[in-house]
Amino acid sequence: MRLSQYFLPLLRENPAEAQIVSHRLMLRAGMIRQSSAGIYSWLPLGLRVLKRVEQIVREEQDRSGAQEILMPTIQPAELWRESGRYDDYGKEMLRIRDRHDREMLYGPTNEEQVTEIVRAAIQSYRDLPKNLYHIQWKFRDEVRPRFGVMRGREFLMKDAYSFDLDMAGAKHSYNKMFVAYLRTFARMGLKAIPMRAETGPIGGELSHEFIVLAETGESGVFCDKAWLARDILGQDVEYDSDLEPMYAEWTRHYAATEDVHDPAKCPVAEADLVNARGIEVGQVFNFGTKYSKPMGAVVSLADGGNVPLEMGSYGIGVSRLVGALIEANHDDNGIIWPASVAPFHVGLINIRAADAKCVAAADELYGKLRAGGVMVLYDDRDESPGAKFATMDLIGLPWQLIVGPRGVAAGTLEVKNRRTGERQDLPVEAALNRIAAP
Predict the structure, then answer these.
(1) pLDDT (tens digit, 9 = 90+) per residue, 382-396?
(2) Is the dihedral of CA 278, 280, 282, 286 positive or negative?
């Protein structure tokens, strides 16, 4: 994509309403634009990142054996009355009526909707287990939406729902999602620590939040300092194997949110306990028959009896992850995207737009990169070199290739690694090999 044709409305100054780094940089880099309080339009650069995050989430869900569906954003209130949550959920739920005066709601989550789908289609224990997920927009009417996409009212979420015959099966499904989440965040370069957490309005007794430590985190967390030295999980996993040992390994060090942390019962010595702020990027729940019993989601057994389904739910804040990634990856000049989620892999900069030889060399390189399947943003604008460098640093692409008169004469390119700041003058083919290296 040529930057002269790209819709990238940059801001020179920090917006007054943006209180944290990710919100400031997303606005300055032209990724989002506020529509109303806590509701944003995603512009081309931001949408590319959002889609890349979404795809990693999808691939790891599929790898675990979960199956993708798509449920509506608008749900009938009667389903929530069946479960007993309609009146209990609170003002965060946006309640509406359609033209026939039927009570509806804009879904904040989908436990009831998916339970209705499964109870109508699964009647026998032979059809279990199942795990269904979707990636869909949600709405929660936060009383104080703030921090940009980190705590908005409308947000994109991956929510999955498992259905099992008994508690043993439900725990295995929980472990699958637990491990899938470790892999998901590892692929994005995030160290997301699983922490025991409150279940809140979802319900149940077993839950973990996946927390990225950050000064701008919205909640207090406590963990054994051993977590700080741990590598994030990235190895392949056999999901049909016994995952309990892996679950035990990744929960053996103490980690808890402030809601469940009890100083009197904490097993970690004070000198080894980290008290920090954290950003929640995902949460997993096991809640047994909380929804299946009141909603009549049962299956028949071999002996003719029947039992309610054992259930769990598993959420990842896809749009929130974009903000969390920026909080964990930035410097004074702007964003530093991990390659796995970057909107483009390379920023190609022609620093002399009026020089015919530079234009020809940059155009040829642009064509070569595109032909090789490299995602490239080509700054072909008639701007000063300083303005072009500032733009590329702000939007944070992993690599910059810089075409200038001296390099054209010498047959070289300047290659800059955005994360390290390292610059090298290399022959063209060597430069292309350099940006292709992990």
Answers:
(1) 999 999 999 999 999
(2) positive
